[in-house]
Amino acid sequence: MYFHLLKKIINDILTEEFHGLTWEEKQEFLAKVVAKEKMPILKFMCWHQLNMIHAGLGIVSVFSPSTVEELQKVISFSNEFSLPLYPVGLGSNLLGSDLDCGVLVLNLSHLHYKISHPLPKEQLRISCAESLPRLAHQLLSLGLGGLAPLSGIPAALGGALRMNAGANGTHVGEFVQAVYGFNLLDGTEYCGKFSDKDWAYRQSPIPKNILITAADLLFFKRNPTEEKAAIQKEHMRRIGCTPKGHSAGSVFRNPSSCPAGKLLEDSGCKELPPCGVFQVSPEHANWIVNYSGKPGRTEDARKLVKQMQKRVADKYQIQLQLEWQFVPQAEGNAF
Ligand SMILES: Cc1cc2nc3c(=O)[nH]c(=O)nc-3n(C[C@H](O)[C@H](O)[C@H](O)COP(=O)(O)OP(=O)(O)OC[C@H]3O[C@@H](n4cnc5c(N)ncnc54)[C@H](O)[C@@H]3O)c2cc1C
Question: Ligand 1 centroid vs 89 CA: distance in angstroms?
């Protein structure tokens, strides 16, 4: 009964049938409904508020569960009404939709995961919400380390595992012992165990329909002073090489033959005119930046991406593969 009411409210609010109410009043009304049922917080937000490059003008309903129990309720709700769920970490690699759509967004930044049993030494169970930079620092007090090469990646663990985020010749998959989560298509629990060879450059073996809630990671014993120095060194390296402006990281994966940035630069992509608030960074041809920080249309960014892809394809007959994630533009299964 409650789920039906919630679905109706989401529909009505998105289709503006709550005539006469301001956004604040709509939010307030909604907060009362979800609080009554102990559902996680639900908010209506614009996609551009959920990603670092500020792309996507569409409105979505965003659930922020803080416990696994709350998360399970949202999954049941999505399955009962076939409303696709789209997980979001720190939003450092994704661009939203320009359309108001029925996708439910799961903001996992508040999800805490209880460690149910002590794990063997040097192994920790980490919540998908934990950010890589913070985790690298937290390990210091435990005399553990190994994460310094990845400590500058602005990622939550869930997003990092989905993308197999990497830097300095290391990738997050190398630390993984087990991944926990839920199958978003039927709500069943998931546990995946992988070996090193299952992970590849920016490719994760975790099935697309799995929502990652936590993972067991194996670290190394490290001298805290040396590890802290390595984190600081990586921080300084990043400051020196990260293009200025809001971004979503590298646009394309590097083909095996040559770095994407070189192909894009040699194809003249830095000279492409801006599309809306987005432009190719003059510092790095594989980065699109939003200097203004103002919300932009994802469609504009997509246009720029296509022009870049075409220039490289025309000149080198190489089809660059996207590293960026575009969220689904319309209602439908997110996978
Ligand atoms: C300044 C900057 C520097 C960057 N440097 C690097 C770098 O050095 N190396 C690198 O690899 N990347 C880099 N990136 C890209 C980005 O940080 C990584 O891809 C990162 O892994 C994304 O993590 P996130 O938490 O922000 O995920 P999001 O961008 O929020 O999401 C990325 C994808 O993961 C999915 N996802 C998120 N959470 C979950 C979950 N819990 N379960 C299942 N799926 C989930 C989302 O649905 C989406 O498809 C950089 C980005 C920026 C802006």
Answer: 7
pTM of the model: 0.91
Greatest CA separation found in the chain? 61
**Domains of the chain by residue range:** 2-107, 123-226, 244-326
Confidence at residue 29, expressed as pLDDT on a 0 to 100 scale: 67
Ligand 1 atom closest to the CA of 88, numbered from 1: 30
Name 247's bridge partners. Answer: 289
Phi-psi domain of 79 (left: phi exceeds 0; alpha: psi -120 through 50; beta: other): alpha
Q: Which residues form the catalytic set?
A: 202, 250, 323
Q: Is the CB of 86 under 6 A from ligand 1?
A: yes
Tell me, using a 6 A CB cutoff, whether residue 52 lines ligand 1: yes
Expressed in angstroms and rounded, the spacing between residue 176 Cα and the centre of ligand 1 is 17
Q: What is the pLDDT of residue 4?
A: 67
- The pLDDT assigned to 44 comes to 81
Q: Which CATH number fits domain 123-226: 3.30.70.260, 3.40.1180.10, 3.40.50.720, 3.30.465.10?
A: 3.30.465.10
- Provide the CATH topology of domain 2-107: 3.30.43
In a mutational test of the pocket of ligand 1, which residue from 92, 132, 174, 235 has the highest number of ligand atoms less than 8 Å from its CB?
92
Place 168 in a pLDDT band, splitting at 50, 70 and 90.
very high
* CA of 40 relative to ligand 1 center, distance in Å: 23
Fold of 244-326: 3.90.78
Average predicted confidence (pLDDT) for the chain: 89
> Amino acid identity of 48?
H
What is the token pair recorded at 123?
């192994």
Between CA 158 and CA 57 the distance in angstroms is 24
